[in-house]
Amino acid sequence: MEKNGKVSVVAKTGGFKLEGEDDWFNPVESLKANITPDLKGRNVKLTINEKGKVTAVDVSDEPLKPTPASTSMKNTKVTIGAELTIKYQKAKVEMEFIIEYSTETEFLNKVKECQKKVNALAIEQLKEIVEKVATVIGESV
Fold it and tell me: Hey, is 24 helix, strand or coil?
């Protein structure tokens, strides 16, 4: 995979960030010596391997066309659950979501959104259980 951008931060450990990105880019061991503080502010084209490590950095004096966000999107399958209890009645909901995101912050926000949906479903399920129990014992809720 390739990624274009402008270097905004260079860490002493060799990792660096691109402008507008939350993620750090870490080079393979053999490339670390080439990642120096003078890279900050430079336009670069990165080659990234399947493990997410930078294997090549091409520096350009000309601005490079930014890589579209869709090429840096990641997908993660998460299972989110909720269990609510009122006395002896329980509602348990567990759902799998495929979350597509480009930054860790975006991922965490989307997980929170999914958790809210699951909680709402568990509450609805619990209401149905309470109504059924009330019907069986002849009381209104």
Answer: coil
Query: What is the four-CA torsion angle of 101, 34, 11, 19, rounded to 10 degrees?
Result: -40
> Residue 31: phi, psi to the nearest 5?
-100, -15
Residue type, 84: L
pLDDT at 16 over 50: yes
Alpha-carbon span 66 to 95, nearest angstrom: 36
* Domain ranges within the chain, ordered by starting residue: 2-67, 73-137
**Reported confidence tier of residue 10, pLDDT bands at 50, 70, 90:** very high
Spatial separation of the C-alpha atoms in residues 123 and 118, rounded to whole Å: 9
**CATH fold for the domain made of 2-67:** OB fold (Dihydrolipoamide Acetyltransferase, E2P) (2.40.50)
